[in-house]
Design goal:
Elements: H1 5-22, E1 31-35, H2 41-50, E2 54-57, H3 60-69, E3 74-77, H4 86-92, E4 95-99, H5 102-115, E5 119-124, H6 138-149, E6 154-160, H7 168-188, H8 191-196, E7 199-201, H9 208-213, E8 218-221, H10 223-226
Parallel strand pairs: 1-2, 1-8, 2-3, 3-4, 4-5, 5-6, 6-7
Helix pairs in contact: 1-2, 3-4, 4-5
Bound molecules: pyridoxal-5'-phosphate.
């Protein structure tokens, strides 16, 4: 039983390495994003001391605040995008995981242009079709990727999804479907866009091993790192 944050972080990392070995992947291919949305700066500082380089937040005010406090880390925006907060999100995020509307893509392009940056994004796909989940349908994903390709300050790096909770087998299928969708979209892209389109953000505290087995390149782990009450 790991009882300090540093121990939990180390255990998750060790398990990630073990699962990668089991499924024949290199641990270098999988980036662990520590989702810090429920904790304060002290816990974030501990996670960074334990080795966390990538951190995730789901609210604009939080990512602005935490990226301000910890500017050396890579901050990932994984939450609902609100139009009027797009300049703040673009100012703070290395990668936006949760883009699914073209009107937001256009606003991200404008905000990134104003900052002189190219914003990396992932397209969020609602693979499971659950109403509670955001994202484009798998059928709509390709069109949105193509629409983003026309925006000079937006670079689509891949796809993101959230699996149904509580059923490992369904989660695994959901992740495999996302990987297959990404491969088919990638095959249709011109080679310069295809080489950047290589990321699959999938898997959370309860289902990241299934996600790695299905090809995740980024897993987003909150409770397994930050909560002493979590047990897998
Ligand atoms: C909160 C959150 C996570 C992390 O969830 P845990 O179950 O705490 O690991 C991952 N992705 C998104 C989009 C989230 O909102």
């Amino acid at each position: 039983m790991a009882d300090t944050l540093a121990q939990r972080y180390d255990e998750v990392l060790a398990s990630v390495r073990a699962v990668c070995a089991e499924v024949g992947r290199s641990a270098e291919e999988v980036r662990l994003i520590a989702v810090s949305k429920t904790v304060g700066p002290e816990a974030i500082r501990e996670a960074i001391a334990a080795g966390a380089r990538d951190l995730g937040e789901n609210r604009p005010d939080r990512i602005v605040e935490m990226a301000g406090l910890f500017p050396e880390q890579r901050w990932h925006f994984i939450g609902n995008i609100q139009s009027r907060r797009i300049p703040d999100i673009v100012g703070a995020a290395a990668l936006i995981h949760s883009l699914y509307q073209v009107r937001h893509a256009e606003k991200i392009d404008a905000a990134a242009a104003a900052l002189g940056k190219v914003q990396d994004v992932l397209i969020e796909v609602n693979v499971s079709g659950e109403e509670s989940k955001s994202g484009v349908t798998p059928k709509e994903a390709q069109l949105l990727v193509e629409q983003c390709a026309a925006l000079p300050h937006v670079r689509v790096r891949g796809l993101m999804t959230m699996a149904p909770q509580g059923d490992g087998q369904r989660a695994r299928e959901c992740f495999e479907d996302l990987a297959a969708l990404a491969a088919s979209i990638r095959a249709a892209l011109p080679s310069d866009k295809a080489s950047a389109f290589c990321e699959l953000s999938m898997g959370m505290s309860e289902d990241w091993p299934q996600a790695i087995a299905a090809g995740a390149t980024m897993i987003r782990v909150g409770r397994a790192i930050f909560s002493d009450a979590f047990s897998a």
